[in-house]
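From the shared-data thread, chain only:
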Amino acid sequence: MNRISIFLTNLGRYEEGCLMGEWVKLPVPKDELENVLRRIGINERYEEYFISDYESLFPNLYISEYASIAELNELAQRVDELADYDYEKLAAVLEYESSMSIEKMLEIIDKLDAFELLADVHDDAALGEYYAECCCIFHNVPDSIQRYFDFESYGRDIRLESTLSFTSYGAVIDNR
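Structure, as tokens:
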């Protein structure tokens, strides 16, 4: 699945007022990249190109105009190899991080095991319920008493004492 696309543009032609470029889905094989470069007029006269636009399923990924296509290919390949759960975990981490470079994103992929995703936890009350169930704090407590427990306050305290952030994918815990 292609989660990152870049628009490669011929720099020389761009400076002459002509937009010659093409969208490329990553990862891109070397021979296909060479064909794209040929189609946008990269040759002996026009040797330089740049990334004039990009699309990514990762909202905070930043790709500079002169980013390395080799690094972008590596990133796209590594993302494509992730299992669904790890992909969601990565997307959640990227959602709460600020602008993310290619290098930083590769680093996070390398350390993805240091993050935990609680997929169904989106607020303090759900966090409190999750930990109460996980820690079996109501193991021998009757249901009639359990309903008086303040899950939201319990969850808020857990969140404030941890490195946890809520995302649209669920709660992410950073254990780095």
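The longest strand covers residues 49-56.
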